Amino acid sequence: MRFFRTVLMMLALVAVLAAPAQAQGKSATVSWPQEPDTLSPLYTSMTFGGYTYQLYLAGAWAFDNALSPIPVLVSEMPNLDNGGINADGTVFTLMLKEGLTWSDGDALDSADFLFTYDMIMADGNAVGSRSPYDRMVSVEAPDATTVVITFSEPYAPWLSLFSTVLPEHVLRPIYDADGSLDTSDFNRNPTVSSGPYVFETWEVGSFMRFQANPSYVLGQPIIDTLVVTFVPDEVAYVAGLLNGDSDLGTFVAFSDVPALEEAGLKVEVIPSGYNEGWYLNTSAERAHPAMTDVRVRQAVAMSFDRDAFNTDLNYGATFTPHSFWENTPYANPNLSPYAFDQTAAGALLDEAGWVDSNSDGTRDKDGVELVLRFATNTRGIRVDLQAIAQQQLAAVGIGTELVNYPSDQFFAGYAEGGPVSTGDYDIAELSTAPAAFPDPDTSRFLCSEIPSDENPVGNNSTYYCDPELDALLIEQSVTTDFEARIALFHDIDAKLLDAAIWIGIWHDADVWITGTNLVNAKLNGVNPFWDVQNWDVAG
Amino acid sequence: MARYIIRRLLQSIPLLFIISFVLFALMQATGDPLATMGGRQPTRAADRERLSRQLGLDQPITTQYLYWLIGNDWVVIDPETGRTGPRRGVLRGDFGTSYVSRQPVLEMIGGRIPDTLLLTGTAEVLILAVSLAVGIFSAVRKYSLFDQLFTAISFVLYSVPVFIMAYSLIYLLSIGLRRAGLPYFPTSGIFDPAIGRTFEQVVWHMVLPVLTLSLISIAGYSRYIRSTMLEVINSDYIRTARSKGITERRTLFVHAFKNAALPLITLVGLDLPFLLGGAVVTETIFAWPGMGYLFINSLTRSDYPVLMGILMLIAVGVVLAQLLVDVLYTVLDPRIRYS
């Protein structure tokens, strides 16, 4: 008994001594469910790496909470009128603001943009992706405040360019000495900043700390210290938000939303370009023969009650999208998702010749049973959905073989035998977004992107080829006029819906949680820190 | 004894080579490290091809193993410039760099070992101390109220999975205490960034993860110690010791416990190398920056160099720990001698 009393007293003493001290200046804490792999935009392949480096590296522009571009390092957004975009959309001229500096006082100018391009393309750097810089013909800096980017053909997704710029004066000597920036200490300990905050420290496995940058081009942040903590476990993550240990978090499950709202936290569902969907395989060689018939694909879409699923298992926190570009101007507002109508689905299957001739409960045709291979990864909500969908499809006479893969196998490429890439599925469920969101450009439905032994790098895993759709997709990629491009995407949307090769399951927006201590935090799914300089803390 | 130790060490060298090759081959089954390098988008095919070449993943597995072992600084990897590879190999102390963070593997692992040993070492000390106390007391007071109560508690605790234990402690001692307006235990990290890494902060943050690791093991170990003590305290020589007038305390702790501890040494010896490997589930739940947390992150990204570094460290630890246990046996039991 004495022993336990002693232990309790010691813990109480530690509790008093461990109590938080009064922080110097204003401070806020952001929690990520994953620790970034690196702070370098060249090497990070993580969403949270991408969010975090925005704290210390500014880009040419950012996106506001309506996903409209706003100038940051450029003096104004390039367009046809100011000569920032030439008539055929192949040359982009960025006019930088005068007097830009890094946090150490060194000038931030066009040479840094040129250096950034050089480092992305340098063979000594094993960067995660060279897109879209490998499509550029040249990047030139005629003077300190002008950057001229030339493409060989019109490039519509130009808003994805130069989202960050590297400091040449710091990194050039390192590259010249080592021949690579791969192992540079700057990747984990950046010494200069152009963004709203200056990096201070990274306690590996625990947190990073940033201090306000007084020379930030959009103004010194109100919050002096920003701490980014890493909490990989979902339960501990939500507990931290509920306890007020962190002021901002994201990527919580929809199932946690009610508890967070009940605790008085602000919950926002913010588009990130992602939509969860079923890709339906139309390949005559690789898919079930029924999948080449659009009536069968439409019947599949109508057989599963997606609205009920989103209400019950996604807690009503999201909805069923009709468009691959849901919640953007590029989604056709006049379209609706396929309604849940098993009677109409059955009629379509009857019309297509799929009937239950042997009374085994599953439709068949020419001796072939209508059993579809439904593949996804092992994520819990997807496994649950598969079970429900199997029952509902069975009610219409569609059998399903459910297959689950670990993520790295599911998303593996054609050469590695990935099931999606090789078309080894009839229905594949995954969440996807346009590659350069908020730009809508995608190559997923192009005929030229159908994978094969001759073209293992193809991206069109539905194996669907429609020359009219193809022409629209190609035309949009070279259309730099905003309104004209929207019109093209509305046509593309209509064709995709009719073809029933992509069926929206839920709008996979990100759930962001803001604590009561943090005020004036405006967020978006691309640049969550676009307005961080104006965030404040209560009290 | 010295010759025995040297012989065991020499025997472990080929064993470690075999282990390293088997582990390296098994790495290929963990997944494709390039699959997630595109971030939330699948890796572009052009980037995949380039990265495969730059990271040496386009080589046959036997070549990759050879480069891992002896390096590739003797191989020209760019015929145009004559540039040789950057790696010196494991045998020259270079475990390579992480595919994910591009950090040297030894630096990554070295940075995690102290915090891992802090957590698992503290938990192990607590497990042994409490298990010994409870196990010996239960054996001496066999079938008493304490013994029966603790037997029941042990069976319950031993049945609880680690993650359930962790979540229960979070809800009781963090969320629950906070809702009651009391000081609450933190659920993540090793210290509060606003305060810094002080002794008090680390202790406060260690409470929940150490309890998670300890409670289940205490339940198991205390039962084991009770069982071995019961075997010994009913022996003839213990009865002789008591009849000679030796105090009960000396009888138990000098004569009985010394013999009962022999099997326990084996158990602890098996645990020792895994102190280095960390507690994967506990560290992940409590965001404790240790080896277990690093291991699970590396596994999900198929970061082969880091995984190999950690696994080889554990393999070496197992070999050395077993040797240590065998040597300790000779200290505790004079009947055991190695030639």
Structural description of this entry:
The complex is a heterodimer of chains A (539) and B (339). Chain A has 539 residues and is α+β, with helices and mostly antiparallel strands. Chain A is built from 13 helices and 21 strands. Chain A has helices at 2-17, 47-53, 110-121, 168-178, 234-243, 257-262, 294-303, 306-312, 342-351, 380-395, 407-410, 467-477, 482-499; strands at 27-32, 61-63, 69-71, 91-95, 136-143, 146-151, 197-203, 207-212, 225-230, 248-250, 266-270, 275-280, 364-365, 368-369, 371-377, 399-405, 427-432, 502-507, 510-514, 518-519, 536-537. Chain A has a five-stranded mixed sheet with strand order 16-15-17-12-18. In chain A, helix 12 (467-477) packs antiparallel against helix 13 (482-499). The two termini of chain A are 44 Å apart. In chain A, 47% of the residues are buried. With 339 residues, chain B is an all-alpha fold. Chain B contains twelve helices and two strands; from the N terminus they run H-H-H-E-E-H-H-H-H-H-H-H-H-H. Chain B has helices at residues 2-27, 45-54, 61-70, 105-140, 145-159, 162-179, 199-233, 236-243, 248-277, 280-285, 291-300, 304-332, and strands spanning 76-78, 83-84. Chain B has a two-stranded antiparallel sheet. In chain B, strand 1 (76-78) and strand 2 form a beta hairpin. In chain B, helix 4 packs across helix 7, helix 6 crosses helix 7 and helix 11 (291-300) packs antiparallel against helix 12 (304-332). The longest helix of chain B is centred in the middle third of the chain and has 36 residues, at 105-140. Classes of the chains: A alpha+beta (539), B mainly alpha (339).
